[in-house]
Sequence to fold (258 residues):
Amino acid sequence: MKQKGIESYQGKRIWVIGASSGIGEACAKSLLKAGARVALSSRRAERLDALAHSAPNSNSLVLPLDITHVEQLDSAYGKIVESWGGMDLLLFVSGVYTPLRADEFDFNVAYKTIDANLLGPMRAVSIVLPEMIKNHSGHIAIVGSVAGYSGLPKALAYGPSKAGIINFCETLYYDLLPQGVSVHMISPGFVATEATAQNDFEMPALITADEAATEILDGIQKGKFDIHFPKQFSGFLKFLRILPYPLYFWIVRRFVKI
Fold:
């Protein structure tokens, strides 16, 4: 059994959470250009308003929210259903990144990271899932990171949050495939965004947010579960996952100069 893709985004009802910048903004722009109906969510209302007005003849809803507050997510979803009668795709892109190593470990930073990057998507999925299961249709796409594949420097909180996303998506896929609901696990490498601008090291295979959006939206259309890119980098990290730990740590120390 193969999960469904999306033949065309024209007229589709799509909720992009994390639409005010970076990958989420690039995805939202592409979807609006393709004729989709797009609900735009993030904390920065002014950025969402600007995005909604930048697309001529766009059919969009501006729904500012904080992903750590389930009542705000629930309210936004209610407005989508009221306006459009339902939803075809949840695209969860929102997340936070703070570089963190053991010698500067801050539990408050770790808590906020897990709350946003792992519990945030779980909150959103819990809200949209009942109707999708009832209708035996719909798509759930969550942006994680290749940092979730295995332990990497400066990702002491970010890495575990994205590793949790991988496990969450894998289990969702297993449970939802028989229900007719498609799941898309998205694992980007380094993408030039406000978040990665914090890094003080050279980022291999760095791509633009527009390039990332193209990979994501193409992968969803084709019905892919595992959407990872750029392949030369994400494929290498996938390979590292299967190595014995002594060899894995040796390679990381040798090639990751952080």
